[in-house]
Amino acid sequence: MSFTVERGEVTAVMGPSGSGKSTMLNMLGLLDDPTTGSVELLGEPVADLSAAERTDVRRERVGFVFQDFHLIPTLSAVENVRLPTRFLDADYTDRAADLLTRVGLGDRLRHTPDELSGGQKQRVAIARSLINKPDVLLADEPTGNLDRDTGEAVLDEINTIADGGVGVVAVTHDELVGEYADRTVELIDGVLHD
User: Which UniProt keywords apply (predicted)?
Assistant: First the structure.
């Protein structure tokens, strides 16, 4: 399988359950190793990096938006967004607040996840994925838990992110994601089809 993510492009990867979408996303995000072949990020091979080096690459160059958000329930929205920076010397509170404002949550900075709707939680997760200014954003079912209007708002924000030069890969069952993507590929039984 050969798959390239371009900066500034949103690619939707669609396919039935069990087709390998999540496995593909995990390989792109350096969470899983391919059994054969290689994975490159911006032209650099990354599959043979040590665990520590892979962690550094993920932290510095890859943003993740998980289907189930993975927000810490006791932290506020701004604290959840800042979480990936907790081991860095700089204070990212202002950037976290700016990102939350950008995704329409400037009035929810101090709210905990149980005080947010599903769409708001998804937008917190998107803001968190951008805190380290990634080169690539990987989104697992970015609209999976959302109504259509909220899904469209999230996809508008994903397109804005791509317009800023970030390559975006969204794996999904949702046809709406394909409508918003610059390119859609289908993954069936581990085989990509353009």
Answer: ATP-binding, Nucleotide-binding, Transport
- Show me where the domains of the chain are located: 10-193
AA letter at 61? R
In 3D space, the residue among 78, 85, 118, 122 whose CA is nearest the CA of residue 100 turns out to be 78
Please give the single-letter amino acid code of residue 84.
P
Nearest CA to 150 among 130, 179, 121?
121
Kindly state which CATH superfamily the domain 10-193 is placed in. P-loop containing nucleotide triphosphate hydrolases (3.40.50.300)
Q: Report pLDDT for 18.
A: 86
**pLDDT the model gives residue 33:** 85
The 3-state DSSP composition of the chain as helix, strand, coil percent (nearest 5) reads 40, 15, 40
- Which residue has 């669609």 as its token pair? 14
**% of the chain exceeding 70 in pLDDT:** 99
